[in-house]
Structures are given as structure tokens and as C-alpha cells.
Amino acid sequence: MLIAKQSDLRDRSRLVNLSPHRLWRPLAVALAAAAALMLGAGCAQRASGTRLQPAGAASAGSPGQADAQQSPFGGKPAVDIPPQAKAMGAFLQAEVATEEGDRTEALKALEEAVQYDPGNATLRVTLATLYVRDGRLADARVQADQAVKLEPGSARALLLAAGIDSALGDDATAEQDYKEVIRISPKNQEAYLFLGTQYAKRGDYEEARKVFEQLIALDPQSFLGYYYAGRTMLAAGNYSAADRYYSKALDLNPQSELALLDLATLREDQGRRDDAVAIYKKVLQINPNDDRAHRRLAELYFAAHTSSEAPVKPAPAPEKVEISPSDTRTKIGLLYFERGDFDRAATEFNLVLGAEPDNYRVHYYLGTAYSELTDYDKAAKEFERIPESSEHYVESRLQLAYIYDKQHEYDQALTALNQALAKKPDDTEILGFTVGVYQEKKDYPTAIKLAQRMVALAPKNDKYHFTLGALYDESKQRSASIDEMRKAIELNPKNAQALNYLGYTFAEDGEHLDEAERLVKRALAIEPEDGFYIDSLGWVYYRKGEYGKAAEQLERAVNLTGDDPTITEHLGDAYARLGRAEQAGQQYEDALRRSSDQEQMARLKGKLQALRNVGSASH
């Protein structure tokens, strides 16, 4: 979170992104209604690039047929607006609201669209999906059931209805729906996965295996097909078959923690403890934070430990492999998440929570999906639900801190971070995050104290010395800052940030300019196209009175960075020294437009006025 010297006056993350949707939204709705009138009912075109599915062909016989646009001067209306056009207008409103992240408005608009066009199955599926994401499964079920009645051949409607039924505990109906999806859409892989796990959930392992084999025949590269076939056989006690399926799954994805952890459980069940230990260690090489692997290794170690006082005791049995639609849905949700389809991931996670409201792991996943969708209120609610006893508690506090920090709610961010630190007081990553928030608050004494703690915990970490040095600099403790930067460079001679920071510091102070030039050139040897480092070199030349060389480097820096007011001001200073007053004034004006720092803005205004005074005197 601490950044290089020249960018101290800049924070791009604070720039406001004004959505153009806010400007054209009313016009877009009006245009959509007009287009529907011109094209005729049912001819609305498919919108592209949006998360919501289009309304599709409108149905007839909708309520509100008598509603019409009244003439402002009485008499008959000029044109009757068909309910289908009103539905399309409301649907487009929902799309715009979705793109803007206003999901409350999107839901309201979709409900209005369904009221205008209740016979439109696609609209009802879309509304049901939004209800799921809002946690309203009963309402979602009504809409999904209506969609299936309106369009019995819709695999999308049936698949959603089955998921809702499963989440609400109606496994029998869900099973029938999955079978129907496979009948009408035999290549729908999700239906095979969910139907197989429905069979496995009730202990019908052989039927589950047959379904997964069908999926594998459909797609021989289906990792999840092999993985769930392996889980099914492990649960059934058919270890040789489980071994074959897991081996194939790992051929397709050798780094899969899911398959490796299950395979370790299989090895334990087979009495092959050493093989299980090796697999758990491999998992930790892939993910050093895997709690299950850490816990199981510790249990196996202590069970094998012998001494005169502590005889050998058997390790606790490994976790029993359970197969359920919720587990499958969680993994599919994670796949959607990895692909960047956060809307569909949120839908899957909400369906899991409908069946398992206390599944805090999924609450964490859902909060993360909402965060990616910038629905921060919902994200925060999901993270707040996670109790201190959960393995995801610390991560949830960090996510909360991220959300609050992004919203400039620094005190709330610090509350969440302190909760995380209470669990992991020596975690330098959490400490570093906390340092950054205190820095943003400009509470440098507290930030420095925490950064000193980071250095004490990891004295050979050059990045922590750099962080501490930058904080000393911001708090006007120049000598201490220089000492820390020198220490960072001593520990890592290729720390380009520290090399540049120290070189620029010397240039700012007008001291040790030859050393400053050497330091910055070392940084540029590591990162030759870094515009900020090039600015530092230009500023060193400026301080040395080599204004032509300074202007040459600073022009490069401006071209590379584009919008940094400090670099632009530096170029203006070089032009001014070269007598290129008009170009200097242009750079100062540009820097003034871009700057938000009051001190810099006042300085730039002074320089512009000085140029004007010189121009007036020359005339």
C-alpha cells in the first residue's frame, strides 16, 4: 500500500468513475419502448453484453392492457403502449441497474416487467434468479415453477427449479427435474453432476456411478466427472475404483487440492499412512495455508510420536467423505467464480445456503462474489455472519477491512483488522494492511510503530524496511528514512523501489547528487521502462543544472505515466530553465488541472503567475 516517492501526491484508486448509464438511462428506456412500438410486439432484439438474459418473445393476454399513454389535452391517446413494450422498458431498466450495481432497483424493475408480461417464461427465470441471489428461495420457487409451466422444454428453467427444490429439501422433485433436463438437453453437464450427487446422497452409489460415467462418456476431459465418481466409490468403500477415478482426475488437474485431499483420505483408509503424509505435504506445497492438511498432518504426527510417558495412540479417523448436492453446487460456484462469472457463482452459493444456512465457508465465498460484483453492503453482511470459531474468520475480517478501506471508512476497517490481529498477532501481511490504513488516515506515529514491529518480526525482509523508511519520510523524519532505505538496499541490492526512493530523496534535498544518479540508474537497470524512475533521473539532472538532459528524461517520463501532476510540473520546471516559457506554462496548466493537492496547486499557480509577470515585463 506504500508507494514510490514520486507518487506520494497521487492516488489513482480515489478517482471517481462516473457511470455513463446514469446519463442515458431515462433516454434508453424511452428508446426501447419506442423501438418495441415500431417493430411490433414480440420483436424486441436481444441485448448484448449484459448479465441479465433478454426478455425474449413477449406473451399475450397480459394485465394492464387498458393502460395507455393519455393525451395531455384530453381525447383519445395518440398511441397505446402495449404491455410487451412496457415489459421491455422495465427489463432494460433492470439491465441498466444491474450494470450500475444497483441490484435493488434491478429486482424492482424485473418484478414490474413480469407484471406487464406474466406469460414470459424467460422473464420469470430471470426474476427467480434475482430472488435466489437475494436469499428469497420461496419466491424464487414460485417464479421458477411458473416458468416451467409456461415453457416445459426450457432446460434453464428446469435446472434452476431443481436447484431451488434441492435447497429447500425437496430432493424427489429435484431428482425428477434433473432427469428431465438430461432428457431434453442430453449434453447439460451440470444436470449429470447434480443427479449423480442426489443418488449418492441417498446412498445409491451404483446409480450415482452410472450417471458420472455417462458424464465422462459425454466429456472425457471432465475433471468433476472423475472426481465425483472417485468420491462416490470412496464413500461406497470400493477403494480400487476410487483410486482409478482419482488418478484420472489428477491426470487432468495435478494441482487439485480437492482430489489430493480425498486421495490422502483414501490412503489412510487403506492403511498407507506414509503415502497419506506425502500427499498432505504435497497439498501444503500447493497451498501452504490449507488448514485441513495442516490439521491432519499434526494428528498423524502426534499419533506416531512415542516416549516413555506417551505411548503410541491411533490417530483420529480421517474426515468421512460425504457427497451432497450442496457440496457439488459449492464446487460449481467456485468454478464460475474462477471464470469471472460472479453472478452465477452468487446464485450457486445462495442455493447452497438455502439448504445449509450455517455453512460459513459458503457465506465467505458468497461475500467474496458480492464484493467482486461491487455489492459491498451484501458482501459485508455475509462476512459479518462468519463467527470467530470459523476457519474463515480471519479472512472475512480482511475482506471487511478491504471493503471499508475502499469506502474510506478507516475506523471500521481498523476494527476488522484488529479482530484479525487478535487471532494472528504476528502475521506481517495483516500488519502491513493495517499500516496502510493508518497511513491513509495520516496517523504516522501508529503506522510507524506497527511497521517497526514488522521489521522486528522479519529483520531481513527488505520490503518491510522500505515500508518503514517511506513512513519515516512522510512524517518528516528524513535521517531515519534514509537509514531504512540504505538497509533495504543492503539486504536486497536489486530493490528497485528503495534505490529509486533514496536517489529521489537526495535529488529533492539537493545533496549527494552523484550518488543519487548512480542509485536511480541502478533502479532503471532493473525496471528500464518505469516512468517514475525516469522522472527521478530527470529530476537529478535538473538539480545538477543539466536542464537539457533533464527535459529529455522528463519528456519520456510524461509519455510513460501520462497523468501524474508532479512529473508534469517537473517538466515545466525544466522548460522554464531552458527559457521555453510557453511550453512551461502548458505543463503547469496541465499539472494544475490534474492535481488535487492544495500545496502543489498553490505552488503551480505561483509559477504560472511568475511566467505571466515575466511576459508582461518583456512587453
Please describe what this structure looks like:
The chain is mostly helical and 619 residues long. Among the domains are: 187-301, Alpha Horseshoe (Serine Threonine Protein Phosphatase 5, Tetratricopeptide repeat); 517-619, Serine Threonine Protein Phosphatase 5, Tetratricopeptide repeat (Alpha Horseshoe), CATH 1.25.40.10. The protein is built from 31 helices and no strands. The longest helix has 21 residues, at 598-618. It is globular and about 90 Å long. It starts with 20 loop residues before the first helix and ends with a helix. The relative contact order is 0.05.
Rg over CA atoms = 32 Å
Report the top-level CATH class of the domain at 187-301. Answer: Mainly Alpha
Described by strand count, sense and barrel closure, the largest sheet is: none
Structural class, judged by helices and strands? mainly alpha
Mean pLDDT: 85
Q: What is the second-level CATH architecture of the domain at 187-301?
A: Alpha Horseshoe
Large-scale geometry: globular
What is the CA–CA distance across the termini?
A: 50 Å
**Count of separate DSSP helical elements:** 31
Q: Enumerate the spans where pLDDT stays under 50 for 5 or more consecutive residues.
A: 1-73
CATH topology of the domain at 187-301: the name is Serine Threonine Protein Phosphatase 5, Tetratricopeptide repeat
